[in-house]
Write a structure and sequence with these properties.
Shape: rod-shaped
Helix content: 40-55%
Number of helices: 12
CATH topology of the domain at 100-181 and 188-289: Transferase(Phosphotransferase), domain 1
Structural class: alpha+beta
CATH class of the domain at 100-181 and 188-289: Mainly Alpha
Radius of gyration: 56 Å
CATH architecture of the domain at 100-181 and 188-289: Orthogonal Bundle
Strand content: 5-15%
Order of helices and strands: EEEEHEEEHHEEEEHHHHHHHHH
Number of strands: 11
């Protein structure tokens, strides 16, 4: 849509010390002009709200947010704000640092996708400004390639430019300033650029926090290295559906020469679940700068977590079957005791049998001795009786008929009888 031409501000004196010189550009809210300090002579950029919006409370509120948010950030990676106010004609203005160069959006339109090392350097510098903003309680909420300015700077890390974040017009200031909650927006209002907005910024499922800027930074990096936005569409509803529900794009499928590690990086930068994202823009930028080493550490950490979870997953089962384990242990102990008792019984039985045999042998020996002794006594008795018979009857004793006892075989009597 063609923007109506801005008012002619050339030659106008702003804040009593800045002279407006020429138009630099314009957008939906207003226009930006080059100006010069009337006494010091240095260039500045002066931003005016479009006259047709100067009566809008929402636009004035955003204008005020932009000035206050940018003024808080004392870093070379955010555009500096020198002054802001309202002219005698009722025109709000912001006096800012004058920048020469181009936005990342313009660079991409001119050159197409950029090499990953260059994009990593841009992300690192942008993250410095964002990190400071987050420390100050500010969420940019509209991070996109058009708001990442590549200001010409011959001394900037060999790149020839210095990254400057611009346009904090819809920034969310998390803490109240003088009792005024600058973070409030109308219910249901979509604030930001759809192609780079996080799911929670679309749906309101969670508060907009620094994690939302992590998502937007990941989407900007994706666009810079792949040459296209991660989620495109002809209507905002189509973009919302892709951001919130459709499968995440895989960078290496679009640009095969990209390292596989970048797929993992993008997956974490733009994870739909906030806890799964990088914890901060600084961590995300550092991971991108040392992509291969970070990816190796990530793989090792993932392996460790999987092993730990795998081991932990058995604990409930082991606890659940602890009674069974105790039963098995008790059964094993009883079985062992039974075996030991059996061995002991066998040993006792063997020893008892040997003892019985020994006792039987002793008893047999004793019986033999007793029988021999009885035999000896019997023979002595027989010899005594024989000698009594040979001596004759005792006087006064009635004589009984003599009973002939056959002599034992081999005795002398037997031998005599055999001689006859």
């Amino acid at each position: 849509m063609t923007q109506p031409p801005p008012p002619a501000y050339e030659g106008k004196i702003v804040a009593g010390r800045y002279r407006v010189e020429r138009l630099l550009g314009q957008g939906g809210m207003g226009s930006v002009w080059a100006g010069r300090h009337t006494t010091l002579g240095h260039l500045v950029a002066i931003k005016f709200i479009h006259p047709r919006l100067a009566t809008s409370r929402e636009v004035l509120r955003r204008f005020d947010i932009e000035a206050k948010a940018a003024a808080r950030l004392k870093t070379r990676h955010a555009v500096a704000v020198y002054d802001h106010g309202v002219t005698p004609d009722g025109e709000p203005y912001i006096v800012m640092e004058y920048l020469e160069g181009e936005s990342l959006e313009q660079r991409l339109a001119r050159e197409g996708r950029l090499p990953l090392p260059i994009v990593a350097a841009i992300a690192t510098q942008a993250a410095r400004a964002l990190s400071l903003a987050h420390q100050q309680g500010i969420v940019h909420r509209d991070l996109k390639p058009d708001n990442i300015f590549l200001a010409r700077d011959a001394d900037s890390e060999g790149l020839g430019f210095c990254v400057k974040l611009v346009d904090f017009g819809i920034a969310k200031i998390l803490e109240n300033d003088g009792g005024m909650a600058l973070a409030q927006t109308e219910t249901g209002m979509v604030v930001g650029t759809p192609y780079y907005m996080s799911p929670e910024a679309f749906t309101g499922s969670a508060p907009v926090t620094p994690a939302s800027d992590v998502w937007s930074l990941g989407a900007c990096v994706f666009a810079a290295v792949c040459g296209r936005v991660p989620f495109d569409g002809d209507a905002i509803g189509e973009v919302v559906l892709k951001v919130c529900a459709e499968p995440m794009p895989v960078p290496t499928q679009l640009v095969p020469e990209l390292p596989r590690a970048f797929d993992t990086w993008f997956e974490l930068a733009c994870a739909r679940a906030i806890p799964e994202r990088f914890p901060s823009v600084q961590v995300a930028a550092e991971a991108l700068s040392g992509l291969e080493s970070w990816h190796q550490q990530q793989r090792e950490l993932t392996t460790y977590e999987l092993r730990r979870r795998h081991a932990a997953s058995y604990r409930p089962e082991m606890e659940e079957f602890a009674p069974q384990r105790r039963g098995l242990v008790l059964g094993g102990a009883l079985a062992g005791a039974s075996v030991m008792l059996a061995v002991l019984g066998y040993y006792v039985m063997t020893r008892t049998r040997a003892a019985d045999q020994a006792a039987a042998a002793v008893a047999a020996s004793a019986r033999a001795v007793i029988e021999a002794e009885n035999e000896r006594k019997l023979r002595e008795a027989e010899r005594h009786w024989q000698s009594t018979q040979d001596a004759g009857p005792v006087p006064g004793q009635k004589s009984e008929p003599r009973r002939m006892t056959p002599p034992a075989k081999g005795s002398p009597a037997s031998s005599k009888g055999g001689g006859r």
